[in-house]
Amino acid sequence: MKFVNEFRDAKIAQQLAQEIASLVTQPWTIMEICGGQTHAIVKYGIDELLPKNITLIHGPGCPVCVTPIERIDRAIAIASQPDVVLCSFGDMLRVPGSAIDLLAVKATGADIRIVYSPLDCLKIAQQNPDKQVVFFAVGFETTAPATAMAIYQAKQLDLKNFSMLVSHVLVPPAMEAILSSSDCRIQGFLAAGHVCTVMGYNEYIPIAQKYHVPIVVTGFEPIDVLQGIHLCIQQLESDKAEVENQYTRSVRREGNIKAMELIGEVFKVVPQQWRGIGEIAESGLGLQDNYAAFDAYQRFPLPLISHEVDRKRNTESDLCISGLILQGIKKPHECSAFGTICTPEHPLGAPMVSSEGACAAYYRYRKHDAMPEIHVKSIHVKS
Prior knowledge:
Radius of gyration: 21 Å
Number of helices: 19
Strand content: 15-25%
CATH class of the largest domain: Alpha Beta
Keywords: Iron, Metal-binding
Number of domains: 3
GO molecular function: 4 iron, 4 sulfur cluster binding; carbon monoxide binding; iron ion binding
Protein name: Hydrogenase formation protein HypD
Distance between the termini: 13 Å
Number of strands: 11
Structural class: alpha/beta
CATH architecture of the largest domain: 3-Layer(aba) Sandwich
Shape: globular
Family: Belongs to the HypD family.
């Protein structure tokens, strides 16, 4: 824990908070893109350490949360077919579709398996040649290389019984969509460090220049987040709009070149629906023509499902404000259903399910009091 605890040191946190307070001369609103950063902020009470005129907004940086309902329904429809093994990361099983979730389908006897890597699915396909094995591929740029490698290897192995239901999304277009909105009040961003470990941060430079917003690539520990906020406030107070890298221990400007080459080999950029937000141009990944044989959409030409037949039905509960939460317009505790009707055991919306969802973070750490007093000492010892 030596190299983790140094990023949770209470004295350093206090010092950074004091330095931030000494810089601020006016109100500023900063969005952290990543759900992992949101959990760190809520868990360690980082927002409570900051001056009151700094507002942190939680962004749509939870890939499970923004996976469209249509894609959930399609996964459910595929898993319900005979002789199909649907593989998925665990947090996708509880995400509500338009009527039920994957866990409910599994309970009826569907062969749905939790995997920790897309590459695990190749072994399952090899071991079950009489079944169709489908991987539900969800994630940002962070997980895209592993998905691409699984498809690349499947082609090399000439696996005829393996395909993917792809729902990868890209961060920079989502940031542009937020900034271009007439309701936008974001003045600076904390960018997700693990995303930039793969993609680098060159793509953020034109965004920072076009919208005149500082973007700071930031890690996930309390000291990381406070340092990211410190760098962002320095820029805001100096009227600068540049891309800075707080997460230098993991991120290079050019990113992981080999990983990006693999993504480019297997995927192409496509429009993508974001749950609770709508379609964002050039914000998703689809399979290149050379790999179309592994596309579950083509492998399973199912009849029209709920999203396509009845768009009105294919929405969250009327009580759920997850769309507003994912856009940073509302916070979880502002939802009337939070912690009562909507819980992780009985979620109304995706942000209450995922380990990176904002609602799940508030429920776990602040369900009894939306904004409790948080002591800085807890940064070092709180689990």
